[in-house]
Structures are given as C-alpha cells and as structure tokens.
Design goal:
two-stranded antiparallel sheet; 2 helices; alpha+beta; four-stranded antiparallel beta sheet
Length: 144
C-alpha cells in the first residue's frame, strides 16, 4: 500500500515507497537472482526502431511514428553468456508486442504467430547488464 501520495507522478509512475517495498520483497525472496538491469538508452531506441515506433527522419535523427498496431514491450527473464566474459548471467530479453484480437503477440521471428510488423532483425533484444555487476549500491532500491 502506498504510504506517500504523489499526485505529480507521470502516468504509471510509482511512489518511491512502493518501489522500495517491491524491490526489497524481490531481493529478499530471490537473493541469488539479479537485483536489477541497466538498460542503455541506445538499446531501448533500437527496440523501438525495430517495431516501427521510431523511424528515421532522414537527417540522422528519429521521430515517433504512430503505429496503432504496436501495443508495448514484453520482457523475458533469461540466462545466457556475458557479452564480454562469456560467463553465464541472468538477462532481460525484450520484444515488441502487437494486439491481435486481444492477444498481445510477440513480434519475433520463429513464432507460431507471424509478426505483424516488418522486422529487420530477429525482434528480440538482449538487455543483459544485470546487477550485481552494474549495481548502484547507494540507491534506495538496492537492498542487502
């Protein structure tokens, strides 16, 4: 339950008390799992380009393209090799989704459902910079 009301939060923003309680609950229940993932802006932009939410403006920039078919992004927990060391690590694989008759279908190759948006790649993105490798230990959301 929210203990501090903040009417100035953006849409779907979370009061910090809730964020702290939720992250503490996760980190207490799953102490050996990743606490968080660092997601670089460029990775998010690449995913939004792949699913047609952002398009080139022809001048080296990007503009928002209203694509009503694209609903959102789904994040999958995964395990795979670290890009640099090759050691096994937890990963966050993200894909775009499209609402097809009330079902949010992943827009990725090799799915049973054909992608509804043109893909230039596989449609799947590795956001694999997990904490504890990339933690901010001074954050109020980091719990020991």
């Amino acid at each position: 339950m929210t203990t501090n009301s903040d009417s100035k939060l953006p849409k779907n923003g979370v009061p910090i008390d809730d964020a702290e309680n939720w992250t503490k609950a996760w980190q207490t229940k799953y102490p050996s799992h990743s606490k968080a993932f660092l997601i670089p802006n460029t990775d998010l932009l690449s995913l939004l380009e792949e699913i047609g939410v952002l398009v080139s403006d022809g001048k080296g920039g990007l503009v928002v393209h209203s694509n009503p078919a694209v609903y959102g992004i789904r994040a999958y927990m995964a395990i795979g090799p670290d890009r640099i060391t090759g050691e096994e690590e937890e990963k966050l694989v993200m894909v775009g989704t499209v609402d097809v008759k009330g079902e949010f279908q992943d827009q990725v190759k090799n799915s049973k459902d054909e992608p509804q948006v043109p893909l230039s790649g596989s449609g799947a993105f590795d956001f694999g910079r997990p904490c504890p490798k990339t933690c901010n230990v001074n954050s109020s959301l980091y719990h020991n």
